[in-house]
Amino acid sequence: MTKAIETAIKLLETLPESTQEHLVEKLRRLAFEAQDEGHWDTLFASSSGIKAAARKAAQEIATGKASDMDFNKL
Q1: CA 43 to CA 37: how far, in whole Å?
Q2: What is the pTM of this model?
Q3: Where are the domains of the chain?
Q4: What is the pLDDT of residue 10?
Q5: How far apart are CA 63 and CA 69, in angstroms?
Q6: In angstroms, what CA-CA distances link 7 with 16, 67, 70?
Q7: What would the pLDDT profile of 12-70 be if each residue is shown by its tens digit?
Protein backbone atom coordinates (compact mmCIF):
# COMPACT_ATOMS: atom_id res chain seq x y z
CA MET A 1 0.00 0.00 0.00
CA THR A 2 1.35 3.42 -0.89
CA LYS A 3 1.83 6.27 1.57
CA ALA A 4 -0.83 8.24 -0.32
CA ILE A 5 -3.40 5.51 0.25
CA GLU A 6 -2.43 5.20 3.91
CA THR A 7 -2.83 8.96 4.34
CA ALA A 8 -6.23 8.91 2.59
CA ILE A 9 -7.42 6.07 4.83
CA LYS A 10 -6.33 7.93 7.95
CA LEU A 11 -8.18 11.01 6.75
CA LEU A 12 -11.31 8.98 5.96
CA GLU A 13 -11.21 7.46 9.44
CA THR A 14 -11.68 10.91 10.95
CA LEU A 15 -14.99 11.43 9.13
CA PRO A 16 -18.44 10.26 10.20
CA GLU A 17 -19.28 6.72 9.12
CA SER A 18 -21.98 7.80 6.66
CA THR A 19 -19.52 10.14 4.96
CA GLN A 20 -16.91 7.38 4.85
CA GLU A 21 -19.38 5.03 3.16
CA HIS A 22 -20.36 7.70 0.64
CA LEU A 23 -16.75 8.53 -0.25
CA VAL A 24 -15.68 4.89 -0.43
CA GLU A 25 -18.49 4.17 -2.88
CA LYS A 26 -17.29 7.07 -5.05
CA LEU A 27 -13.71 5.78 -4.88
CA ARG A 28 -14.90 2.29 -5.79
CA ARG A 29 -16.67 3.65 -8.89
CA LEU A 30 -13.60 5.66 -9.88
CA ALA A 31 -11.40 2.58 -9.50
CA PHE A 32 -13.72 0.51 -11.71
CA GLU A 33 -13.75 3.29 -14.32
CA ALA A 34 -9.95 3.43 -14.26
CA GLN A 35 -9.75 -0.34 -14.76
CA ASP A 36 -12.20 -0.12 -17.65
CA GLU A 37 -10.28 2.75 -19.27
CA GLY A 38 -7.06 0.79 -18.86
CA HIS A 39 -8.66 -2.17 -20.59
CA TRP A 40 -9.71 -0.02 -23.55
CA ASP A 41 -6.32 1.70 -23.68
CA THR A 42 -4.70 -1.72 -23.92
CA LEU A 43 -7.02 -2.80 -26.71
CA PHE A 44 -6.47 0.37 -28.73
CA ALA A 45 -2.72 0.36 -28.13
CA SER A 46 -2.48 -3.06 -29.74
CA SER A 47 -4.36 -1.91 -32.83
CA SER A 48 -2.22 0.80 -34.37
CA GLY A 49 -4.41 0.81 -37.48
CA ILE A 50 -7.27 2.33 -35.49
CA LYS A 51 -5.03 5.08 -34.15
CA ALA A 52 -3.68 5.85 -37.62
CA ALA A 53 -7.20 5.97 -39.05
CA ALA A 54 -8.35 8.27 -36.25
CA ARG A 55 -5.38 10.60 -36.81
CA LYS A 56 -6.06 10.66 -40.56
CA ALA A 57 -9.75 11.39 -40.01
CA ALA A 58 -8.93 14.20 -37.55
CA GLN A 59 -6.47 15.68 -40.03
CA GLU A 60 -9.01 15.51 -42.87
CA ILE A 61 -11.64 17.19 -40.69
CA ALA A 62 -9.19 19.91 -39.65
CA THR A 63 -8.20 20.66 -43.25
CA GLY A 64 -11.78 20.62 -44.54
CA LYS A 65 -11.26 17.51 -46.68
CA ALA A 66 -13.90 15.47 -44.83
CA SER A 67 -17.58 15.42 -45.69
CA ASP A 68 -20.67 14.02 -44.03
CA MET A 69 -21.34 10.38 -44.76
CA ASP A 70 -24.25 9.73 -47.11
CA PHE A 71 -25.74 6.54 -45.75
CA ASN A 72 -27.89 6.20 -48.86
CA LYS A 73 -24.73 5.58 -50.92
CA LEU A 74 -23.58 2.63 -48.82
Answers
A1: 10
A2: 0.51
A3: 3-65
A4: 96
A5: 17
A6: 17, 53, 56
A7: 999 999 999 999 999 999 998 888 888 777 766 766 677 777 888 889 899 988 888 88
